[in-house]
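Both lines are given unchanged directly below:

***
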Amino acid sequence: MRIVPAELAFDAEGTPTSPVYGDVYHSAESGPGQAQHVFLAGNGLPGRWARARVFTIVETGFGLGLNFLATWRAWRADPERCERLHFVSIEKHPFDRDALAALHRRYGEFASLAEQLRDAWPPPVSGLHRLHFEDERLMLTVAFGDVNDLAPRLRLHADAFYLDGFSPRLNQDMWSPLLMRSLARLARQGATLATYSSAAPVRQALEAAGFNMEKCPGFGRKREMLRGSYQPRRAQAGQAVAGARSGRHAIVIGAGIAGAAICERLARRGWDIDLIEGRAPPAGQVPAKYAGVFHPHISRDDCILSRAARNGFLYAIQRWLALERSGLKLSWSCCGVLQLAGGPAQAQRMIAAVAAMGFPADFLQYLEREAAEQHAGCELGSGGWWYPGAGWMRPLSLIAAQLAAAGRGLRMHYGARVETIHHEGECWHALDAGGKRLAAAPVLVLANANDAVRLAHIAQPLQQTRGQVSYLPEAAMRAPRAVLTGSGYVLPAVDGVIVTGSTYDRDDSDPEPQARSHAENLHSLAQMMPHTVVQANAAELDGAVGFRCAAPDHLPLVGALPDVDAARAGKTALTGAQLADLPRRDGLYCASAYASRGLVWAALAGEMLASQLEGEPMPLEGDLIDALDPGRFVMKQARRGIL
């Protein structure tokens, strides 16, 4: 969905207003006052979240963020506050950071909190954006898009609702019976709801959806408002969201980019983790000079891959910056990435995609060749997509930082190969070839790429593709100032080395660099930089080899693993079923098949698994979660009658 930011405007009384809807963003008397009276007091807050482990608020209409800021302030001041507060808000027309700064100057009582909000504020691109505050005890998940599109796709259990759209008379879509039913499907039994509106159609729609509503005194010029709670006459099927486990202990198999991110996300929630890795510690592995590229995926139709990868890209950068703020060192750069067009036809498709999606220029733009050359600092054969916030990362530096951030709750088991896993009692056991138990825990996560299918079935083989990069000495060529991608990729010179690659060698399991692969990388480099002289001999180059793990649909596997045997035994009942009906192996999860986008997927996948295990709101829309579900292959086969 193309996001159109809100316009900064005021009415005759100086109250922020929307020219599109012809309505004010809050009461003319006081925005903070309305937030306190209507939404906090109307939901019995802060009292209702007292001593809870997790409390979730869902808001329709983020606007200026005053309700969030007032809630944040109340939570911060409450000694009985919940352990973790999730605030999930949907906004179709978000303000940009500059407009928020101008608006927030009017509300001095929120100055310090508003500054933190603006510092973390995402670009106006569609989807869910999870922001962390207060040492990750308060989370804002702001969803940019149409409320009727997004609300049915949220995966959460709500404890309270703030209904704060523009007037029902001026914006009927935000108060429709269909939306109220969508909100009811998200509600816990007894969840409260408050809104400034007292319109009869709003009350009727809420009551029809299962909310018991009452009128009470409104704020300012509003004589009345509505408040109530979710008390359906009969149970409704809600969204499938796992509850938190009593024992926060997990085994993670695989200490690569997937496993390290999972460890960091779980550790932030107080989990103990046994991390098992068959290889030696990182110092004896791939040379530290290896670096990978991170950037979003773009398509004109904004396909599943594009939407999910965009979330992953933005979330990853946010988490990396947080690691640095905590004092950990990363080797990376947001120097920008230029994805070159392969010819005139591809250039036209790129231009059309940018026009269709309407992304802000600081997220993506198409550059003609001359403008592209200015960013790259070298002659090119074409223009292409320019991602200003993308760049390169040395994965080993990221892995080391994430494992360091996991702290004392992490136990490392290097040089230990897991031969088998089995479930006994309430625990998963990881055993070596001799049957010795390496670790036991209620939760086990397979983050070991292709090796995951050796330990657990997903009813679908994964693909393994060899990739080799080449290291050129800085003197061998004039390196670009930004990352170039196209037929391959090439990075700016870092510490005297230019990294270029990477090959796609199928049916090749050789872990050592090959001269022919170096030659292939030099050929790709010449296609990207046809006017650059490269003084290098393929037979003399150094490099590194890795193996990509990919699923047939090019999407990762993130989530609870299916019980394939149980699914086969009951396959007749699954022909018309949904993923929520699929039998699962209790406590067994997977994070794999990142292909060539490990830097983009890892942090988001870690947050997804941690949220699922803790029973917290998920950081992705439901259709994207389903698209990444490891059970998707079992379900497809069951529906086709071939399981």
